[in-house]
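step 4 of 6: structure.
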Amino acid sequence: MELLLLLAVIVPAAGAVITIFGMRKWVALFCSGISLGLLCMLVPQAAEPVEITYQIQMNPLQVRVIVDAFSLLFALLVSLLFLMAIIYSRRESSSYYFLLLCNLAVLLGIAFSNELLLFYVFLEMSAVITYFLVIHKRTDESIAAGFKYLVMNMGGAVFVLLGILLKGDSLGALLFIAGCLVKAGSFPVHVWLADAHPAAPSAVSALLSGAVVKTGVYGILRFAPAFAVDVSVVIPLALASMLLGVFLALLQTDVKRILAYHTISQVGFVLLGLGLQSTAGISGGILHMVNHGIFKALLFLCMGCVIKATGERNLHHLGGLKSKMPLTAAACLIGALSISGIPPFNGFVSKTILFHGVESDTVKMLFVITCAGTVASFIKLFRHTFLLNPGVLPKKIPASMKLPLIILSGFCIVLGVFPSIVLNFTGYSFEFQLTECATEILVTVGLGSAIYWIGLKTGVITNPPHLRVSIDRIFCGMGKITDYSSSVLSNVLTQDINYYATYMVLFLVLLFFLFTL
Amino acid sequence: MSHTVILLVVTPLMTAFLLSMTAIPHKVAYTTLKRIRMLLSVSGFAGLCVLLGTAGPHVLSGEVLTYQLGGWSPFLGIALRLDALSFLMATIAVLVSFLTMFYSFSYMERMRGLGKYDTFYFLMMTGMMGVLLTRDFFNMYVFLEILGLSVYILISSGEKKENYKASLKYLVLGSLASGLFLLAVGILYHVTGSLNMDYAAQGIQGIVERNPSVAALVFALFVVSLGLKSGVVPLHFWLPDAHSMAPSPVSALLSGIVLKITVYCMIRVVPFFGPQFYQGVSPVIASVGAATVLGGTLLALSQKNIKRMLAYSSVSQIGIIITGIGIGTDIALKGALFHILNHALMKSGLFLCAGIMIHQSGTRDIPHLRMGTPGIAASFVVFSLGVVGIPPLNGFVSKFIICYGAVKAQYDGLAFVILIASLISCSYYFRVVQTFFSRRQGEKKEKRRKKKGEKKENDPETPLQLSNWMRIPVYILAVLCLLLGLFPSVGLKAVELAVTVGGG
């Protein structure tokens, strides 16, 4: 069992090294496929969790590994998504597959680590590798987005490390959670998401939204007990993410930005589940984590196909693609229905569990509003891309890009009809009948359609207003303040040697006084 | 009495002498002279490596090798000692200097006066070895001066106006600092009656108790003089000019080793006054370190010139090391020493890369740097990740150990400062990295090429032919950084020994 685990993590890493020399896509496919297979073989282990400690001489870093239901679930999700992304990717230049495989190995490391410092090490490595993936297209947009991504994620990682170092303190716990939230893209540190996901190549966006963002959530899930902190502090932030994400998504015209803002919103759902801390909450959260990974990757890859076929990212220049790209349209429809929480797709299951795990009525109302907003936003997305009058004419896209769409749609359907596949991992059973939830579904769909219709009539959809107030400005402002203080500091210092000598003597006197104390 | 110790100082001195003799013959062809000089330099370093290699097993098993000059007793004469700490520093110095020397074979080729450069290179090595091995304060002063003089001349060996300016600034301030150092040594001699560190240490205890202001004065003088030479805020002002205006291999040496030699002196001096004194001054030194860390990073942020940015980054990293020394616990000292090793590798690698990139782009401005060879760009990324402190590189390990030591010693704020500084340094290092990937350069994508040993075709755009002499040292340093990061136990074991034998 140990050997399987080690191989599952090391094979992608070895594959990454091999890709430097050639045969990139086949090596990548091969390695991630093997990894996924090995992890599937480990599934029976979920019933009896195993903790292994490897002895290495690096005090205080210990390599403690845990193989239990959560880690296997996360690992399976990650490797599945990576396999899909690799199938989808076309012939890319030098470092792309190398970085993908490295990232896979590192994320699997995150999945199985039971030791805080090890988690941090892999988190940092993942942040840097993902940075290089985000800037892969080398456009000005990607580079700016990548830079923002890197600085914010480094900041998050620094908070995580501080939290780990200050573990006994309550401050440490808050820092750790704050750091993980940055990684997860929750409010108020979501700003990097909105820029990084659209700017990255589509397969990378799918992975970012589907897997990388989940590492933050996974960190909170796995390590919150170690910090003895009440996780429900994340609930207000989760609610804010949910609402803000949907609201901002409704105002976007760039297809990938819409999906990025929805990631913020859906991760809010997951965090809400974690914050509730009941079995229903946690199971719902984890299930939604898996489901979101699958349908968001599906949506990103669909949109990637659309963008590749038409070369357009603007919603209002697209339209009428249903006839020319039927498979993509169907897949997108499945993804949209899943994310909106319509049975019999997977989103319905996790959202229902979460809904019934919530006790407070205000929260339930906010939940419904968010779901309605999601419905509205995806009506907009689907309608303007695939229905309506034709916009740009699409070209043909290769079959390798369509295959992952089929597979992921299949998962959406299968996990929707048989949710126990995943729920067995969390020890919860889904016992809601369709009739019980019918009211909620109808209310959501009705409200969503109403929102969309109102948006259409008021012109918000076609001509979205530009927001003046944004959190993005706060972070850019922080960066500007640092820059400013830096330039002020360097302007203060003169170039005259006389001043330097004077400082020296003054410093000497100061030190003398300090030392005599 | 082990002769290896004295040979470590004498070998580079003799090599320097022989190299200076090569300047005499007039009728010999330039290429022959060049080859002779290269041969001499390499054999000088080979000799040093052999000496260190033979001494290594003894020292690493805890033995201490000593040598008294002229057979005089240590009380009166000059004693040299090679213990684990000196050995560690000597290995770092020799390693980095060796690699930089290969780099400068190619880089300095276009500058005249190569004989002068080589001679003073080895004089600098003599100075370094002397400082590292000596147990006598005045002797330390002498060798620090030898080191300083050679460095001043090396900085000016580029023979451009800015080189002279930088050298002069460093000379004036460095001499002031040396004067203060001499003053400290003088007072110490007067008060304790001996110049030898071990004997004076016995006398100093009484002084600390009876006359604490004298001890404070001596210590303050030491800290200021050594601090200035190490580049501590607010004594760092000469550093950006000197490091950025010197030729690239000299910058690498300066940032990589010369600063560390004076930090080593501080490591020797600070515990000298006894553990209670150490505990008393440790908050002050730790705060000075923290100020250096923050000051260096903030100043680096607004630099447009890449070498100035790297110089300020050095200030910041030295601050981290000083913080480790200031905290004083075993863990922190271990981290500080490991960071000395790591930073020497990383910063010299960075400066060597910067030299290549500057010559290939023709400019020092960050927004206009071209990527050059992919291998060099990749090495630059590796070094930057190390300095920022990202796993799995060596910089992460040492920074983490220092932060861990800080938190353990109740200095939580220091951990904050160091990590926030890492965050800021991430932004300016990646500002450089991202210019590699910017499309604005308008160069065609380079074909994939093997990493080592491939001759570049004569590209009419690149002004400098990138020879293997310049590439391979960079790659070696990058590989070392990666290895030390993935398997730090090797470095950690050596450092642990150095701390127990040499430090507190």
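step 5 of 6: annotate
 - The longest strand of chain A covers residues 50-54.
 - Chain A is about 75% helix and 0% strand.
step 6 of 6: archive
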